[in-house]
Amino acid sequence: MIIISNPVAVPNEIVTIHALFEAGMQLFHIRKPDFSEEEMNVFIAAIGLEYHSKLVLHSHHHIADSHSIKRIHFPEKLRSETTSTELRAYKSRGFTLSTSTHNIEDFNLLDSNFDYAFLSPVFESISKENYNPKGNLFEEIKNRSNFNTQLIGLGGIEFSNIEKTLEAGFNDVALLGTIWTSNQPIEKFKLCQQIVLSY
């Protein structure tokens, strides 16, 4: 189970991130599209060094080495601008690579250097207004032909639909809104984690 940061700052964010790691969070995607490089450096430096191996950068990839981060994410636009040779160069340096997709056709065509990819939105988004599935992803993924890349369900994922998502054929799920819109993010995380681990 993957957790994605809130795109904008939230109160007590670093404290919550540390608590999520202590509760067993395995991967934390830092998606802060409006952060400058300096803001990103400050944000990462505030997170305990012992957790940096579990951080995934969505932007400012060039600062990964200085923070001992070996995981980077390619949003769709950046993926389209990145060659297979460039991806292989990252892999040869020990990086884990991920990306985002919005239909099974794009997922099936992904470069084999991607370890996993989000497919979204599975359900109506919790954090983004008017961000709804265009079709039925549960039907779409029956046409999955790419098994080199792990398929991660994102968008509207919460404890009530995790099991359904995994049963449909997704390898794992990613949470964003269900964590960051909650008054009790750690309790929400533990509830969802329990379902994933028992599946």
Description:
The chain is of the alpha/beta class and 199 residues long. The chain has one domain: Alpha-Beta Barrel (TIM Barrel). The chain has nine helices and eight strands. The chain has helices at residues 13-22, 37-46, 76-80, 84-92, 104-108, 137-140, 162-167, 177-180, 185-198, and strands at residues 2-4, 27-30, 55-57, 71-74, 96-101, 116-119, 150-153, 172-175. An eight-stranded parallel beta sheet has the order 3-2-1-8-7-6-5-4. Strand 5 (96-101), helix 5 (104-108) and strand 6 form a beta-alpha-beta unit. The radius of gyration is 16 Å and the shape is globular. The N and C termini lie close together (12 Å). The model has no long low-confidence stretch (mean pLDDT 95). It comes from Flavobacterium faecale. Keywords: Thiamine biosynthesis.
* DSSP strand content: 15-25%
Number of domains: 1
Strand order of the largest sheet: 3-2-1-8-7-6-5-4
Radius of gyration: 16 Å
Brief description of this entry?
This protein is α/β, with parallel strands linked by helices.
How are the elements arranged and paired?
Blueprint: E1 2-4, H1 13-22, E2 27-30, H2 37-46, E3 55-57, E4 71-74, H3 76-80, H4 84-92, E5 96-101, H5 104-108, E6 116-119, H6 137-140, E7 150-153, H7 162-167, E8 172-175, H8 177-180, H9 185-198
Parallel strand pairs: 1-2, 1-8, 2-3, 4-5, 5-6, 6-7, 7-8
GO molecular function: thiamine-phosphate diphosphorylase activity
Domain Thiamine phosphate synthase/TenI: 14-178
Pfam families: TMP-TENI
